[in-house]
Amino acid sequence: MCYSEYYALNRSNTVRQYYDRFCVHVKHCIHRGIDANCQDYHALDKTMQRLFARHHAKTFPKNILHSVFCCCTESLCNSIDYKEVKEKFGLEKPVNLSLIKCEYLLSISSILLFLLLR
C-alpha cells in the first residue's frame, strides 16, 4: 500500500494546489470495492470515505481539490507524474520546488494499513 500527496504553498503559506494518490494492495481493493480503474473519493465505500476524510480533517480541511484512489498490482504505486497531474487536473509543477510540502507519508500509511487489515 502507498499513499502519496502533493501540494504547493504560495508565498503566504496557504495551499495553492493539491493533488494526492492513495493506493492499497489488490486484495484490499477487492475487499473495499475499488476496481482496477482509479476512482475518486465519492466512488469509495463509506468506510474508506470516512477514513480518508477523518485524516484530512486533521491536516488541511477543505483543501482537498483532487484525489485519486488506485489499485496496485505491486506493493507500491507509480510515483506521481507531473505531466499526468497537469493533464488530468490542470495543476502545474511549482517553479520553486522548496514550496512543495510532502508530509505524513509514514504515519498515514501505518494508520491506513492497520485499519485496512482489521
What key attributes describe this structure?
4 helices; 3 strands; DUF7773; DUF7773 domain-containing protein
Compact description:
The chain is an alpha+beta fold and about 120 residues long. It has helices at about 25-30, 45-60, 80-90, 105-115; strands at about 1-10, 15-25, 65-70.
Task: Please give a structural write-up.
The longest helix is centred in the middle third of the chain and has 14 residues, at 46-59. The chain is α+β, with helices and mostly antiparallel strands. It is built from four helices and three strands; from the N terminus they run ββααβαα. It is globular, with a radius of gyration of 14 Å. It has helices spanning 26-32, 46-59, 82-89, 105-117; strands spanning 2-9, 15-25, 67-72. A three-stranded mixed β-sheet has the order 1-2-3. The chain has one domain. Residues 1-91 form the DUF7773 domain. It holds the Pfam family DUF7773. InterPro entries: DUF7773. This is DUF7773 domain-containing protein.
Topology at a glance:
Layout: E1 2-9, E2 15-25, H1 26-32, H2 46-59, E3 67-72, H3 82-89, H4 105-117
Parallel strand pairs: 2-3
Antiparallel strand pairs: 1-2
